[in-house]
Amino acid sequence: MKWERLPLGPLQTNCYVLSNSEKEALIFDPGGEAPKLNNLLKARKLKPLAIFLTHAHFDHIGAVEDVRKEWGIPVYIHKNEQHWLQDPSSNGSQLFLAHIIQSSEADEIIRGEGKLEIGSFHFEIFETPGHSPGSVSYYFEEAGVVFSGDALFEGSIGRTDLPGGDHAQLIKSIHEKLLNLPEETIVLSGHGLETTIGQEMDSNPFLNGF
């Protein structure tokens, strides 16, 4: 499997495309600039199977509707944020942007943790709330990567001062879910560069002393 990072939208949020040898692809957090993402998929001759959201803040969902329509694929989101796609107040676009972001309802609702198969992809879903109430992370053991959204960054963690944020809950999520992964696991975050679980265990100042 191969992954590709594509910063998109007003905050240059990391969208990721994970593809396999059969040219199937999964899309994570299409934050904006749908034509740019769609053109990349076409240039790579990929066949997208689904869109997975780590959470539903505006900078992670800006291109959801256009990409879904372009490829006719389902959108997955956690139950705690399933209405945020339609609600500019909840997703933050009403407060932070000059325009609102809305899309139709998600096609698939994530109701808990567990394993999921789509196409030839096999992966695990972890509930990692704290940055937002419906934050999830997607772990692909075979590829050695976890898509952490805005839970864990290189040398940092997600902000918790937005509605539904909870600092103690976020720290708990990171320690109980993410830091239990193999240390060599690559962390693909919502912003910034990739890191590893081992690196964050050793040097992330927000996680020391917990």
From TrEMBL:
UniProt KW keywords: Hydrolase, Metal-binding, Zinc
Cofactor: Zn(2+)
Pfam families the record matches: Lactamase_B (PF00753)
Domain Metallo-beta-lactamase residue range list: 12-191
The keyword Transport belongs to this UniProt entry's keyword annotation: no
InterPro entries linked to this entry: MBL_Glyoxalase_II, Metallo-B-lactamas, RibonucZ/Hydroxyglut_hydro
UniProt keyword Cytoplasm present: no
Source species, domain of life: Bacteria
PANTHER family: HYDROXYACYLGLUTATHIONE HYDROLASE GLOC (PTHR46233:SF3)
Protein name: MBL fold metallo-hydrolase
